[in-house]
Amino acid sequence: MTPFVDFQHVSLAYTDALARAGEYAVEDVTLSITQGEFVAIVGPSGCGKSTFMKLTTGLKMATRGSVKVEGQPVTGPLKIAGMAFQAPTLLPWRTTIDNILLPLEIVEPHRSTFRAKRDEHMARASKLLATVGLSGYEDKFPWELSGGMQQRASLCRALIHEPKMLLLDEPFGALDAFTREELWCVLRDLWTEQRFNVILVTHDLREAVFLADTVYVMSKRPGRILSRREVELPRPRELETTYTDEFNRIVLELRTQIGHVRST
Amino acid sequence: MTRFAERTAPFALLVAVIALWEIICRVFNVSEFIFPSPSQILQATIDYAPVIAGHAWRTFWVTMTGFGISIVVGVLLGFLIGSSRMAYTAVYPLMTAFNALPKAAFVPVLVVWFGIGIGPAMLTAFLISFFPIMVNIATGLATLEPELEDVLRVLGAKRMDVLMKVGLPRSMPYFFASLKVAITLAFVGSTVSEMNASNEGIGYLLVSAGSSMKMPLAFSGLMVIGVMAMAMYELFAVIEKRTTAWAHRGQR
């Protein structure tokens, strides 16, 4: 089976001058992700985790090495991906539901039929909102929602066009602990149901271990993959799992590696 | 402070200022050739009402036409320099230099080109008022969050999509804020031009009233132009509140 995402010795420098100086944001990254796999990338601040995401979606081109998605070399923005960030980045002049429909106004094939199928889309967006617990908030504006609610809406926007790949850049970083854990479960359920690929960039090791199949640890600049850890905890995982010895052993193991990264 | 008091405060202050003005003029017996009292100004306004109305109408439509041109040009230029880095770097310094020129100094040149009359007044109103509109549209477009752009670009959005879906709506509050500034500037432009090169309009009325020592009439002209500019300012403030309420949510 060909891997869904395949990185072979990928390096990226943001400018030509940096490339000549040998200053890479990520360096010699080799990894492959299978269809439907939930991958988490952890590492210290500024280690190129976000750069890795931009490479995967084709927002940035590799300086060296090759990036393939579904067996095809990536040559430009992918169009099969959905993204969410730490800031919800919802548009304040659109209601929640209009925010969620935004991708459909842009991505083909929905774009050309958007007006004709508006009711159908609305129904789907409402259903998606219901699955993240935002029923009844369709016509509220983003600034009428709490931070956690905005982040849920942002997840919906990333998923409305049924992308094959969901890229999350510290999506729960700005939330309080309880809301964060609640959203872990929301994401877990969405993923269990739809089985899209997820690449989750995070600082939070518990988050990574709870959600992911595979955790990659990156070193600080230049970002390299230091280790790959498969999380063999059985699914479905409940929040109680996070208090088991097994869970904590894996978190500690990852933490030790990060600590090691810091001290060098 | 209650809502009622907050609403009526500006009017109360206005009445107080007028009353004080009237009292000072009467108590110190100030000559109307130096500083007319509000009642004398009112009298002049009533006496010359048809004349003032004619001049006011002329100034009004000339200003609004010039202002209309400046909206069109300002939005187009703002869109251009806000959406392209290259255009921004190329155009901005030139525009800043142009904006630093006193627009009243253009009037003699415009007179040579377009003759005495509506041409210079309209164009002065335009020249003085398009700059803030352009700058605000450009700023709104240029300060787009990169994350938001990424979200749209991974969907295959073209630069134009990003500008139309996000850039333009986002710069609307900036746009309306600039209209409020620009409309008052436009009245300055047309009036100054009329003072120098016109036989009609409030600007002309001011000069001719002043030279024939009809001070109450001159003051009446000032009042009229002030009222017109303020009314248009309020109009745009209302439109702004209606259309971009999302940007003013803190003030509710």
From TrEMBL, chain B:
Domain of life: Bacteria
Residue ranges annotated for the ABC transmembrane type-1 domain, each copy included: 56-236
GO biological process terms, semicolon-separated: transmembrane transport
Compartments in which it is found: Cell membrane
Keyword annotations of the record: Cell membrane, Membrane, Transmembrane, Transmembrane helix, Transport
The keyword Transmembrane is assigned to this record: yes
Pfam families for the chain: BPD_transp_1
Family of this protein: Belongs to the binding-protein-dependent transport system permease family.
Protein name: NitT/TauT family transport system permease protein
